[in-house]
Specification:
There is one protein chain. By secondary structure, this protein is α+β, with helices and mostly antiparallel strands. It has two domains: 3-16 and 278-379, D-Ala-D-Ala carboxypeptidase, C-terminal domain (Peptidoglycan synthesis regulatory factor (PBP3), Domain 2), CATH 2.60.410; 32-271, 3-Layer(aba) Sandwich (Beta-lactamase), CATH 3.40.710.10. 31% of the residues lie in helices and 25% in strands. Helix 3 (86-92) runs antiparallel to helix 5 (124-135), helix 4 packs across helix 5 and helix 5 (124-135) packs across helix 6 (138-151). The longest helix has 17 residues, at 255-271. The protein is elongated, with a radius of gyration of 27 Å.
Length: 383
Amino acid sequence: MMQRTHVLAALLSAVLVAGGAQAQIMDTPASHAVIMDHETGTILFSKHGDEPMIPASMTKMMTAFLVFELIDRGEISLTDQFTVSEDAWRRGGFPSGTSTMGLAPGDTPTVEELLHGVIIMSGNDACIVLAEGISGSEEAFARRMTTLAHELGMTSADFKNATGLEDVGHVVSAEDLAKMAKLTIDKYPQYYDWYDMPEYTWREYTQANRNPILSISGVDGLKTGHLEVSGYGLTASAVRDGVRRTIVINGLDSMAERGREGERMMRMAFQSYDLKVITPETVELPDVKVWLGQQQTVPVSLASKMTIAGHKAALEKARSEIVLEGALQAPIKSGDTVGKLVVTVEGQDPIEAPIVAEASVKKLGFVGRAIEGLSQMIGGSNG
C-alpha cells in the first residue's frame, strides 16, 4: 500500500512561483496551439498540440531543414543550381495562383536562392524545384522529409509534398512544429537568420516576409501558413532577456486574427508562463519515517532534477507530496531509492522524480523490535 507524505506548500513555493501571478489560465481561438520553452523543449501550454493537423506552408520549415541537412552532409551545396521545370512553374509559379518566388521555366537558381524563396517568399515553386533537383520528384523528397522527421522524434509528421499545399494525409502536430523550430535554431543558426529577413527579391519580383509579428520585440522567425481547409497559422520564436519561447497557432479565421493572436500568444508566453528547474540543491525535503530502524527517520533528497512548467496561476496552486511504496523499513543504505516526489500542476499529468536516502539506517535488534512493536500497540501509528 502506498503511503503519501504531503510536503508543505512553503517547501516548494520559492522554487515554483516567481512573483504573484494574477492572470487566469488562458485559452485561444486557435484550433491548435502550443507554447514551448526553447532551452528545455518543455511544452508550457498546449491546445490539441499533440494532434496531427494540416500545417499548410508551415510545412516549409521541414522542407528547408532537410535541405540544410543535405548541405551539412555534403550531398549538395548552396551554390548548386537546379533548373525550373514546366511542372514546378505551373503548380508553384504565377500560373498556380499560390504563393510563389516568381520563377520561370528554364531558370537556374542556386540552392541558396531557392532557400530564400522558400523561407522568406513562401514560394511553392522554389519548394518543388528543390525537391525535383534533390530527389527527382516532389513525392520522393516528401518521403525523405517524413523519414527525417520521424528520426528526429516528430512522429506525428506525414508529409505528402514539399509545399504544404492541400494533400490527403499531409499532417503534423503543433508540438512537432515547435520541435522543428527548435532543431532549426539550435543546429543551423547560420540559416535561421534568414527567417528574420524582411523581404527578398528574385530578379524584379520582391516579396515581403509574411510573418506578421516580426516587428515585435525579440521575434526573429519563423513561418506562416494558410489554406481554406486549415485556416491561418503561424510558428514564431522570440528571445527576451536571454529566454527564448516558441509559439505555434493554427486554425484562425483571418490574416488579421493570426497577427493579433500571434502577438498575444507571444506576450503571454513570456508574461504568464514560467518554467522552474528543481534540483537536489534547491529543495530540502522533510525526513521520512523509518520502521524498525535504529533511527526513527531518514533524511532524503531528490535523485534527479525536475522541470516544472506552466501558467504562473497554476504553478501557485501546485501540490507536492512524497509517495512511498508502503512503510519504509530498515535496513536502509545511503543512496537507496525510497520513494518519489510527485508534483501536480492543474491541467497537467503529475511530474515525478525519485527520492533517495541520504544516510544508512540499521535494523533494530530483537529487543528493539519488540519494544517498537509494543509502543505501536500502545500509542498507535503516526502514519
